[in-house]
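Now for one record:
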Amino acid sequence: MLIRTLYTISFLPIVIALMLWQAPHPARMDASTPIAPSAYLPLILADQSLPTATSTPRSAATPTATSVPSTTPTILPTATATASSPSDCLVQFFPPDNIWNTRIDALPVDPRSSNYINTIGANAGLHPDFGAGLWEGGPIGIPYTTVPGTQPRVAVAFDYADESDPGPYPIPTDAPIEGGADSDGDRHVLVVDRDHCVLYEMYDAWPTPDGSWYAGSGAVFDLRSHALRPADWTSADAAGLPILPGLVRYDEVMSGAIRHALRFTAPYTRREYLWPARHYASSSTDPNRPPMGQRFRLKADFDISGFSPTNQVILTALKQYGMFLADNGSSWFLSGVPDERWDNDDLHELQERVRGSAFEAVDESSLMIDPDSGQALPPP
């Protein structure tokens, strides 16, 4: 999980650390000690190698949010953009031949698959990090909302402005925040302009009294485009990927099929990223650690017949489309949208009965057309 880290030992170590540190965002570094599997409720994972501090709302001394210049312009509707219905924007994110929407069940296994599985945890269970009800006062999962194209845009200021798309963003004052309004976790805010098919995502997002927002980082994605983030840029996620396209959503599961890749976390990653990811979040060069953007799938011979219809849909998607390693966090934490219709006990069966050893890393390099585009070749 993304937890901001504060160095509070002395001034000299801070200077030395800043001179030697290689990763662009220290707060996105992976853990240095194993994380014990939790119960089936969500776990907030701190970077175990550094002291942590609880996030707190910005005080009145916080600078007023303003649009911050960036080398990449904010994606705005163009004159050629046409209005789309929610079904166009929200049923399938990105074009059909985007890598997110491409099956990988026939692709070869990555040569380092076994090493990656053992590093993440061969005996750790698949943990659905979403559900019904509340956990520590907040919904279980990563929420999102949609707005019309007429939604007023507000200023946003970013801690990492150099790798964030500048505002203004069409963020409502009551936009749902991951973990709830008082959360000290990642505080993701995801908003889709459903009329123009544009996704706005923020990490560590805080509303301010004047209606603007303050966030750690922010990214804008045209859901009709194959465009990726600039190379080496983060997003609202450590891997520089969008978050919303990788979430398990209740209505999608109830439709009978998930036809896109999902998103998960791991406690140990490498100082490297693979297409379509754009950012790493580790100082380690250990080849046994997976890079950001590594794609995994459930093995074809894993028997899903004894699971509920709901879980069979999720497991089938993991066989056909797999999941991207998108962030540092607990082992095999699968991300989804909170929904009161989820059956938490049923979802818990995934953690009890699906182990890390049931997965394998996939080599999807043969699908790449352009390293700066998410467009993919047809799978074999």
About this structure: Residues 309-320 form the longest helix (12 residues).
